[in-house]
Write a structure and sequence with these properties.
- It is a single chain.
- The chain has a single domain (about 5-220), classed as Aldolase class I (TIM Barrel), CATH 3.20.20.70.
- The model has no long low-confidence stretch (mean pLDDT about 100).
- Helix 3 (about 70-80) runs parallel beside helix 4.
- It is built from 9 helices and 8 strands.
- Helix content is about 35%, strand content about 20%.
- The structure holds ribulose-5-phosphate and fe (ii) ion.
- Ribulose-5-phosphate binds near residues 8 and 140.
- Its EC number is 5.1.3.1.
- Pathway: Carbohydrate degradation.
Length: about 220
């Protein structure tokens, strides 16, 4: 797969969620941020909302779990209809067991690393995952500034991903915009989460196309 854009519903209008999901229907994924007020100091939505969102979303749903005890919860999000489930390495007791269970349920298995977590923790186990999310902000809130110092982590994972047999994707989340997407693409990112950049744009579909074009160009130039 090439460059993919995943608008985050964190920046959508929760009173008009279906309208705001359909307004980004040229996106590759819908990014669904789940926060529990414990793993991160913010609280969003969970399983009952996901169950309805997958019924109305024209694109597959990419769940980002920022919650404690993903060993228990991650499979439930797969069963509720997510096409991809990302859990945080820092919250997991047994990341490989979670990933194996997600794959058994037919869902893409993805692990996220907070800015302070080294790629070392997954680099020897990449065969177990379909995607690695390199957070480019501290998880918890939309609209924060992109952290360019995460690019060496992404580059290292890109180099290691070429050693595994399957198509392992890398994702970045936090502060992705027209100004920053090129850096992440050049460092090897495949899937770009963008919340405020897409939902804050006057023409959301045009913004998605602009982000995709900038990422493709930066990838080709790299
Ligand atoms: O996981 C997240 C925050 O923890 C969100 O997906 C992310 O912040 C997207 O928002 P923005 O593009 O506005 O930074
Ligand atoms: Fe996210």
């Amino acid at each position: 797969m090439g460059i993919q854009i995943a608008p985050s519903i964190l920046s959508a209008d929760f009173a008009n969620l279906e309208r705001d999901i359909v307004s980004v229907d040229n996106a590759d994924w819908l990014h669904f941020d789940v926060m529990d007020g414990h793993f991160v100091p913010n609280l969003t939505v969970g399983l009952p909302v996901l169950e309805r969102v997958v019924q109305v979303a024209p694109m597959p749903v990419d769940v980002h779990l920022m919650i404690d005890d993903p060993d228990h919860w991650a499979p439930r999000y797969a069963q509720a209809g997510a096409s991809s489930v990302t859990f945080h390495y820092e919250a997991a007791q047994d990341p490989v067991a979670i990933a194996r269970e997600l794959r058994r349920l037919g869902t893409r298995a993805s692990v996220a690393l907070k800015p302070g977590t080294s790629a070392d923790v997954v680099i020897d186990r990449l065969a177990e995952f379909d995607m690695v999310l390199v957070m480019t902000v501290e998880p918890g809130f939309g609209g924060q500034d992109f952290m360019p110092d995460m690019m060496p982590k992404l580059e290292r994972l890109r180099a290691a991903a070429s050693e595994v047999d399957h198509d392992l994707w890398l994702q970045t989340d936090g502060g992705i915009s027209r100004e920053t997407i090129g850096q992440a693409a050049a460092a090897g990112c495949d899937v770009f989460v963008a919340g405020s950049a897409v939902y804050g744009a006057e023409d959301r579909r045009a913004e998605i196309e602009a982000l995709r074009d900038l990422a493709r160009q930066a990838r080709d130039d790299a």
